[in-house]
Amino acid sequence: MTMATLTTLTFACVILAVSAQICPPTEVMFLFDQSENAARASSTDRVLTPFNLLKDAVTNFLTNSLVANAANFQVGAYGYSSSSNQVTIFPPGSSPSQALGGINNIGTGTNAGSWTFRGMEMVSAPRLQNNLLIIVTSQGSGFQARRDEARTQAIRLGSLGWRPYTIFLQGINVVDLEELLIVNANLQPSFLIDRNPVDPLDPKSYRELTGEFMSIINSILCTGTTTTTTTLPPRTRPTTPRVSGLCDNCLFDAGYGFDFDPVSCDTFYQCFPNSQPIKKHCPDGTFWDGSKCDHMNEVPCPTATCDSTTIQSRYTSGKCCNKLYECINGQLVVQNCPVGQMYDANSRGCFTPANITVSCESTGKYLCDVDMRGPIQSTDCAGYSPDPFGDPCKYLFMGISNSVAAGTRWEQSICSLTFSQGNLCLNTNVTDRDFTGTGGPAAVCNAVFTSTFDFGSRAVYSERLQRNLDVFVSVQEALLADNALIFNQQMLDPFLYYYFFNNRELASNIAFRLRFRLENAQINVEYDLLSNNYCPMCPETISITVTATSSARHVITATFLTDFGNTVSTSAILDKRNILDRMEIIVIFGDATVYGRAYEISNNNVAYQSVDFNTVSKESGSKIETNRCGIQIGRGSHRNFVGSVDDFSFYEYCQSIGSLLQ
User: Fold this and answer.
1) Closest alpha carbon to 99 in 107, 90, 108
2) Per-residue pLDDT tens for 130-155?
3) Residue 35 β-bridge partners
4) Residue 81's pLDDT is what?
5) 3-state secondary structure of 452
6) Are the C-beta atoms of residues 129 and 159 closer than 8 Å to each other?
């Protein structure tokens, strides 16, 4: 089995319902790399048939019956390179039939290099809320200054409402993986390689693009009756929780691009709106933890528990029919069936089928080459190569160095990651979840996430890192005006949503800080300031609310669900001297207590009175229960907020209110 099969880049088949159709209205915008590198990889003959593979793929996309017959399907395309002479291939808002007339414009702006931000600069706001921005590239900018330009454009396009879908196609040049992650909202892009190159030194990866475009068409399908309304109403919260399966569409809207496999730990699903989920695979020896593939003994997977009570328990693999996981001495170990056998979960043993290839494929899994063929003699692993310095914890893909998943190592002989029995590479690729990043002091109470909304900005600043964070924000109905986030009673379902907090671990000694003014509120009605229950699939584990019991008296309540399963709630009562003043609250989820302080803030930003929240005990060292959804401002399980919020900050390592105020 090759690396391309084992890694998370693998796509599974999607079965479409008979009544499947593209959900209207839908808008797709293409950005095509037109560098010399792309021209070479997309042309069977660079001189006689330039860009013919790309042209064929785009033509097949536009003439696909699901696209051609879709109601209110709009498409546009730009070509970009490293020059300032970018090309409109077919203008935004074109119908599929109109776009066919622009196919021959592909390649007319070819230049030696490609700077992705040049193409992104051409894109304006989407016409439709249901959209995809498909970036097709074979190279990248290659320099930090140009990556910074791409980051600026990615944040701009995200704030406009575009959903990126980046496809990298193998060429002869090194890929700028860092830039690909930037433009794809920090999600893994799709990688396409020429699996059967005529000349390994001249791959034609664009042969794979038609199949990838079909996957995209599948991702924007829905079934049953659809509407042709050109504008979508604000999303409303269901009155009762709905029963949903994998990749609930609400979760996808919430920025949750992946979901757990309810059966197996070494597989997971990539989510697309209104589509079947696509199964993906973790490298050998790793399990999906909700955000990444990590060493299997570091991931508490509910379908593969291993402790003193489950000794010798066996668990099935989601990707390999001839592998299993066995609990030995409190640690999970990968076990391989003998050659020619596959694992049966019911009997908890390996057996010999009549035809192992057919039997394995019937389960939707792979027959993994576990000591079956011996080492692969060729070192050509379709773009993958060992670390030039011999580091088994790293490997190269298209010349770019990558760290292996924790608990694995690179094995060139099988073109794959393999399990590292001694945890050789345990700490090489563990995601840092405490916001520290690569710079700034840890263990100091400071703001690692701050939004001021000044001048209508959605930017998020990290005091610790002394720079803005790459954070994508979704805003519905709420207005960014007067250096604040504005909510009013006429809005049906307003909120501002931070994807950044999706599935993020929030430990003890963290703090929330909000500055706001409640306006035109009903007496004794509880209004939501902050929560994380964007979807019915995301139970609320954080809630901050405010209630006006009179025109002057306000009750602010903060409630948390701990990972011990207990609810902790604290509150403060502030009697405002001037009903036009703002309030500011600090709530600290400490090591063994939850506490905080509320202030009244004058128009000239002077805090002239304060009251403390009740100090409430909790389990020492307990954390806030991890939630799939991120944090939303102005909406929760109570009443939508009315008024203005002009500051939101999140802090870490805060031992006291005093340490935060310093």
Assistant:
1) 90
2) 889 999 998 766 677 888 888 889 88
3) 111
4) 85
5) coil
6) no
Q: What b-and-e string marks burial along 137-164, b requiring 16 or more CB atoms within 10 Å of the CB? A: bbbbbbeeebbebbbebbbebbbeebbb
Closest CA to 193 of 181, 213, 210, 209: 209
**Tokens found for residue 286:** 């790793």
The DSSP secondary structure of 580-594, one letter per residue, reads: TSEEEEEEEE-SSEE
629/632 Cα distance (integer angstroms): 9
**Class of residue 325 by CB neighbours under 10 A (exposed 0-12, middle 13-18, buried 19+):** buried
Residue 103 DSSP SS3: helix
224-265 pLDDT, tens digit per residue, is 433 333 232 333 332 222 224 577 656 666 665 678 888 899
Q: Which residues pair with 644 in a beta bridge?
A: 486, 517
CA gap 406, 286 in Å, rounded: 7
Give the confidence band of 612 by pLDDT, cuts at 50, 70, 90. Answer: very high
Could you tell me the sign of the dihedral formed by the alpha carbons of 537, 497, 540, 552, in that order?
negative
Task: For residues 461-465, give the mean pLDDT.
Answer: 87
605 strand-pairing partners: none
Radius of gyration of the chain (CA): 27
List C-alpha distances in Å: 280 to 266, 288, 654.
9, 10, 39
pLDDT digit string, tens, across residues 517-528: 999 999 999 999
Separation CA 246–CA 166 (nearest Å): 23
Residue 210 in 3-state DSSP? Answer: helix
User: Which residue has tokens 């990248």?
Assistant: 140
Q: Give dist(CA 110, CA 38) in Å, integer.
A: 9
Whether residue 25 has a cis bond before it, omega within 30° of 0: yes
pLDDT at 656 over 80: yes
What pLDDT does residue 15 have? 26
What DSSP element (H or E) covers 610? strand 607-612
The full 3-state SS of 131-178, as one line of letters, equals EEEEEEECCCCCCHHHHHHHHHHHHHHHHHCCCEEEEEECCCCCCCHH
Euclidean distance between CA atoms 293 and 529, whole angstroms: 34
Domains of the chain in start order, with CATH, are 21-222 (3.40.50.410), 249-419 (no CATH), 446-661 (2.60.120.200)
Say which amino acid occupies 188.
Q
Class of residue 509 by CB neighbours under 10 A (exposed 0-12, middle 13-18, buried 19+): middle
Which amino acid, residue 238? Answer: P
What pTM value is reported for the model?
Answer: 0.51
3-class DSSP assignment, residue 378? coil
> Token pair of 393, please?
């914890």
The b-or-e profile of 234-262 (16+ CB within 10 A means b, else e) is: eeeeeeeeeeeeebbbbbbbbbbbbbbbe
- 76: which strand partners? 29
Closest listed residue to residue 496, CA positions, set 652, 640, 639, 601: 640
Residue 99 banded pLDDT, cuts 50, 70, 90:
very high
- Please count the CA atoms within 13 angstroms of the CA of 17 that sit on its side-chain side: 13
